[in-house]
UniProtKB/TrEMBL annotation:
Name recorded for this polypeptide: Beta-ketoacyl-[acyl-carrier-protein] synthase III
Domain remark text: The last Arg residue of the ACP-binding site is essential for the weak association between ACP/AcpP and FabH.
Annotated organism of origin: Marixanthomonas spongiae
Pathway(s): Lipid metabolism; fatty acid biosynthesis
Chief location bin: cytoplasm
Compartments, record wording: Cytoplasm
Amino acid sequence: MFTSKITGLGHYVPENVVTNDDLSKLMDTNDAWIQERTGIKERRHIKKGDGNSTSVMGVKAAKMALKEANLKATDIDMIVFATLSPDMYFPGGGVEVQELMDMKTIPALDVRNQCSGFVYAMSVADQFVKTGMYENILVIGSENHSGGLDFTTRGRSVSVIFGDGAGAAVVSRSEDDQGGILSTHLHSEGKHKDELALQGPSTEHWVPEIIAENPQEDIPYYPYMNGQFVFKHAIVRFAEVIHEGLEANGLTTSDIDMLIPHQANLRISQFIQQKLKLSDDQVFNNIQKYGNTTAASIPIALSEAHKAGKIKKDDIVVLAAFGSGFTWGSVIIRW
Ligand code: UT7
C-alpha cells in the first residue's frame, strides 16, 4: 500500500459580494436574523457575464492547487469532481475540467453527495492513490448555488444560507509512510432524503410536469430544507463521525490540531466545538464571509487555513461533513 498526501490546495470565490442587507432588498429578511441564526455576514454570487460557472470556478481553484503542488495539468491522472450544481444536467463537471485544462484523456468522476461531496471525493482519491493505481488526483468541490435559488420571501430560509465558490486539492502518492491521509469514514441514511432536497427537474419531476402540476407556492425545482430537522441530525452525526475517525487511528479529540467542519451554519460548528471541547484555535470557520458553499466549503476553508499558516507539518487535521441524503463523513490527516 502507498501513502496519499495533499500536495496542493486552491480556492476561488466570485468577486461579487452579496451582503445580508442586499438580500433584504429582495425578500423579507434582515441582517440580525441571518447573523443570529447562521453566523453569515455575506456570501459571493456569480454575476451574469462574469464568465464563471461551476466548472470554470473549479478550474480556477484547481490551477492554484496545481501550482502549489508544483504539477502541470498533464501530470494529473484522474479528476474527481463534487457538486450539486453542475453546469449541465449531464455530462458532469469532471469532463468540463478535463477539457478546460487541456488534460490527457484521464478518467473524470463526478460525485453527487452534496455537503459531504468533498469528503466523499477525497475518500475516492485516497483509495485510488493508496492502491497504487494513480499517482496524482485532482479533487474539486464547486458550486453555483445562486443560479438556482428562490430569492423571494418564499425561499428565504434556504436562499440566505448558500453561496458560490470552489476549492480544490491535489492528492498525490507519497513515500512518507508516517503522514498523509490516515483514513476516511463515509455514511448515508436515505430515509431522510426528502428533508433536504431539490426534486426537479429530474426523471421523476420533468419540466412540463412541474409546470402543469404545481401551484406557484409549491415549486419543487427550488431546494427544500427542513432546517431544524437537518440541524438536529447534523450535530449528532458530525460528532459521531469525527470520533469514529479519531478512534480508528488511536487518537482523541485533544490530538486534533485543526478541525475543518463543513460550513453549514456557524451555530453547528460552535456546537461541535463545544461538544468535543475544542479551543477556538482548533477549529476553522469562514462561513461568515462565504455562506454555505456545499461541496466547496471544506476545500475553500482548508485552503484558506493552510495559506494563513494555521496548518503545520505533522498536525492532525480533521475534515468532517454532513448534508443532504443524509450523507456524512470524515477524513483524518497527519499533515
Ligand atoms: O449544509 C447542509 C446541511 N444544512 C444544515 O445543516 C442546515 C441546518 N439548519 C439550519 O441551519 C437552521 O435550521 C436554519 C438556519 C436553516 C434556520 O434556522 P432556525 O433557527 O432553525 O429557524 P426556523 O426555520 O425555525 O425559522 C424560525 C422563524 C420562522 O418564522 P416563525 O414561523 O417563527 O414565525 C421562519 O419563517 O424564522 C423565519 N425565517 C426567517 N426570518 C427572516 C426563516 N428564514 C428567515 C429569513 N429571514 N431568512
